[in-house]
Prior knowledge:
Layout: H1 2-6, H2 17-28, H3 35-44, H4 51-69
Amino acid sequence: MYALNEAKVIGGKTHDVSKLRDHFANIFGVQVANIYAAHEDNRLRKKARTPFMDELKRVLIDKYNYDDEHAK
């Protein structure tokens, strides 16, 4: 959520993170206990600060590569 907010991809501006959290929780049916603590934990990491986003990127690139190899 912080990355989407910082990139201003939702309405071309930044938003209150707690409101984004509530909105995403409602859409995806999940609970986010403490978005601020999670952000702080990630920020304080020296290695692998964004493991979830890194994994998303990796699997998407793998999909592109697979599709390239199997394109007709």
